[in-house]
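agent> fetching stored inputs for the hypoxanthine docking request
agent> found them:
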Amino acid sequence: MTEPESNADLAQASAAVRAANGVTPAVGVVLGSGLGAFADTLGSLVKVPYSRIPGMPVPGVVGHAGNLCLGEVGGAAVACLQGRVHAYEGLPLERIVFAARLLAELGCRAVLLTNAAGGIRADLTPGSLMLITDHINLMGRNPLVGPNDPVGPRFPDMSEAYDPALRAAAHDAAQATGAELAEGVYAALLGPTYETPAEIRMLRTIGADAVGMSTVPEVIALRHRGVGVGAVSCITNLAAGIGDAPLDHSEVEETAGLTRGRFTALLAKWVELVGARVE
Ligand code: HPA
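agent> prediction call returned; pasting tokens
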């Protein structure tokens, strides 16, 4: 079988990043809407703009900076994606997960993903942090469609997509930083429209606690490569029809901004704990 074309692209991208900083990262971090500030807290920070990484798609959404940030947190070498591309931007899903696969290619043994999400369950109000325990993929797409890349199985098991040890570490980090951390199921929709109230009622009925437009493709691509995954949603708004106000991206950014301190502290501790375990 010939090598999938994307692997040659990944090797090239990885070489460009390594030229900027030769340190092999142990932990990868993906920062969602309005949550990019964490990357600026890294020690020995080296920023590589996505535009300088061959093959790397550049995000087009406000609040997504577009830098791969290399550095150190609590003794752990980290590669951090400051901004992501979303499926609704129109690229094939294979391109959407390129950056996540690059984290694996660079050597990350665990990847912690973050996103902004709408709260469906009653206790998930704006400013809540929710550790994702499982997901429902309603994007109607999957990044593994097509010939199987033999880096992983044709039919990957997803029964524990969100690694139990990484989840335990997230709770330890929450306790250490005094942050409240809920748990729940994340439903991923394609967007870019926000949901209708009827869709939110459906999502609640089928077991979703929060809703967003990202993360799931990356989780699937990383699990396919055997990389351990953990994910936290910052609940930035009540899902459609739960509150009175219409949804607006500026509300998402604003709430993410207000959560920044708590979120960054939790994430830093989480990376430190995970780094010590995968080293
Ligand atoms: N729906 C979908 N995606 C989102 C939301 C939402 O309510 N909030 C932030 N991202």
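agent> quick read of the result: Helices lie at 5-20, 93-96, 98-106, 164-177, 197-205, 216-224, 249-278.
agent> awaiting further instructions
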